[in-house]
Structures are given as C-alpha cells and as structure tokens.
Amino acid sequence: MGKLLTVLLLIVSLSGYCQTEIQDKAHALALKYQLATNASTVEMQTAESALTDYFTYRSNGSTVPEALQNQVDAMLKELTAGTSMALKSAQSASSAAITSGFTSNGTLNTGSKTYNRVAGSSYNPSDLCATQGDLSGSGSNVYYNRHKLTVTTAGDVTIEVVEPTSLDDSYLFLYCSFDPLNPKQNLVLSNDDGGDGLLSKLTLPNLPEGTYDLVVTTFSNGDMGDYTVEVNSTGNVVLGPPLAVPVSYWWILGLFVVIAGSVVVRKLL
Predict the structure, then answer these.
(1) Is 28 exposed, middle or buried (0-12, 13-18, 19+ CB in 10 A)?
(2) What is the mean pLDDT of each run of 10 residues along the chain (269 residues)?
(3) How is the chain split into domains, by residue range?
(4) Partners of 151 in beta bridges
(5) Under 8 Å CB-to-CB from 78, ≥6 apart: which residues?
(6) Are 36 and 78 in contact (CB under 8 A)?
(7) Fold category of 100-246 in CATH
C-alpha cells in the first residue's frame, strides 16, 4: 500500500511539473505575441489561455480540436511575421560583423534516439560547461539529433532552426559534451521558442574556441519532422551534419550469433 501511494504521489508531482512547464511556455509565447503584434492585455491573456490548452493536448498525445488548432495557427502566423520583421532589422544592423555561417539539415523520426531533455538553462561564460536545469516533464522521451559544432575562432554565435522545416516546435541545446543519460551535465545553453514562432534560437556572446555538441530536439514527446539549422558567427565556426545513431555492440554480437548458428544448422542438415 505504501509503495502504491509513493508511485501515485510521484505521478501527481510529475504531472504538476509538466503543467508548470507548459504554462511557462504559453506565458512566454503570449508575451512574445503581444510584443510582435501590439496586442492588448486582454488579447495577450486570451492567447496565453489558448496556448496552454494547445500544448496540454500535444503533451498528452491527444488530438488538438480543430477550432483550437486554427486559433493557434493564426496566432503563430501573426507572431512569426512580427518576429521576422524585428529579426531582419537586427540582422541588417549586424550583418557586416558576421564572418562565417553554416546550415545543416536533419530529420527526427521513429529511427531517431530518444532521451529526457532538460527544461531551461542559462548562459554563464565563467562556468561554460555547467550542470544545470531540471529534467522535463513534457519532454520525457523526445527524439533528438546531435551535430558537432566546431569554433575555431571565438566570437558571438547564433544558432537557430529556420525554414524550411516541418519540425514546428523545436528545442535547441548546446553542450560542451552531450550524454543523453546525464542531460543536465556540461550544458552551455538551451532555447525553446527564441526564433520565429515555435522555432528555437540560441544566442551565445563570445563563445570560446572548442568543439561542442548541438542537440536538436522538440518540446513534446512524439514530435517529428525535417529541420534546417543555421549558424552565424563573428568568429569562425563549422556545423556538421547529424551524427549517425551509434550501433550497439550487443546488437552486433547478437547478429553474429544468429548468423553463426544458422551456418552450423545448415552444416548439420
């Protein structure tokens, strides 16, 4: 009875944490929507309520009602247009300083590895490879890809998911070294919705030279799609393609045993 009560309390706790993460995301997006569209406080609150419902459906793996989907789509279209104008203005002002840029494409699907991502982090150049954040309740089993990012000359770096993409709610993480079993360790910075709409953008002032792991994943479990990542820097950077999913040595050994066994059986026959 005691064990059952403990499990129930854990489930309730995780459920509450998941909902808090969704509410934080909805609130941040609603503020972003208000800034991009000059919406009133009432319109901002309506947007926040709709976004909370929307992400709750998605995190539960439930079908989003058509009326709610249309409402959020219209909101995100306005938000993206407003954000894009601000981004283009800022990029025009700083384009002369950019010395290098790369794009890389990838896909998240059922063949991708999964892990429990972290919810939130902060950038601290004095403790670059920090252990930080909390494990996510909404993204407890998300698909991910890992890219190598090599900085050969330190500089200001931006990394963002851009069009074309069918991955509509991305999440970016930069690590000094990524271990999916310990995702809070060596975390430089993460971002959920800093780019257009629900797309992600990392902004890293004076990122030191070195080799980093860029992890591309999603907010909710089960989300899949193609994506494009763009990196720009005032220094020199190189972004690699998605790294191949490692093959388990036990799987190889098992395959060898099956093949060897079939050969022995054939000889006996």
Answers:
(1) middle
(2) 40 57 94 90 95 93 94 88 52 53 93 96 94 95 97 95 93 98 97 94 96 97 96 93 64 51 55
(3) 2-87, 100-246
(4) 210, 237
(5) 33, 36, 37
(6) yes
(7) Jelly Rolls (2.60.120)
